[in-house]
Amino acid sequence: MSDELEKVVEPKVEPKPEPKAEPKAEPKPEGKMFSEDYVQGLREEAKTYRLAKKELEAKFRALIGLKDDDELNEDKIESYKTTKEAELNAAIAKANDRLILAEIKSLEGYDPKLVARLLDKSKVTIAEDGTVTGLKEAVAELEKEFPQIKVTTPGNPANPAQADKTPNDEYQELMKQIREHPNDTLLKQKLFLLKEKMK
Prior knowledge:
Strand order of the largest sheet: 1-2
């Protein structure tokens, strides 16, 4: 029984776990962090980017008019940008003038040449879609100052008092008025309009 008691009384001792050894890093060959294939792939990729950059820079230089040996700086880029904006604005102004002229020609009862020369285009607006607004109002205002812009038809003269006058008669009368009032700019403008009308 004492043996049995000893077995019962004897404490059980559990074996201690052995400390886990940290995995040892494999020694890397000196000077090489990446494989040769990986490094070669990176070099090829970098080369591709360098060549693409050179090609784009050459195209950009050609676009803004720089030679290969010219320095590329902000001033030259800004100068190019300003030039292109001026060219664009000139093209837009020319297109707007054509739109206005087309609208003037569509107006009935007016001499398009005279109206185009005398019209204050700042009173006419053109929308993004090419719609011309304010032209009829500007022409009506112009007609008050220069009634000569109105085209006379044989059956419907613009001014009944002048219906029987020929352009030569009008010219002679206007020259007489200019001799009497040589500093009157309105008479000179009327003379200009009459000469345009006679062409």
